[in-house]
Amino acid sequence: MERRIIPPPADWKATTTAFAWCPYCGRAVNFVMDNRLNIARCERCGISENDFYVRQFNRIWRESELNSFLKKVKRRGKTNQ
Ligand SMILES: [Zn+2]
User: Tell me, what's the pLDDT at 63?
Assistant: First the structure.
C-alpha cells in the first residue's frame, strides 16, 4: 500500500517543541512517546520518528538530533497508552 507523502509548506521550520510535521497527516501534529519501544509517534496516525519522511521534513538525521527531539516529546509527558 502506498501512502501519499505531503511535504510541509515552504516556510515550515523544524520546531523546538514536540510538534512536528507529519507527512502522512499533512499537518503539524503532536508526537507522543511509545514507552514500549522508546520511540515517538504521531498522535493521529501513529507513524514513528523512524520513518524516512518524518526524519527528512523534521531534519532528524543525527543521533543527537533524534535524542533532542525525543527529549522534547518526553518533556511533554504524554504517552499513547
Ligand atoms: Zn500522522
Answer: 93
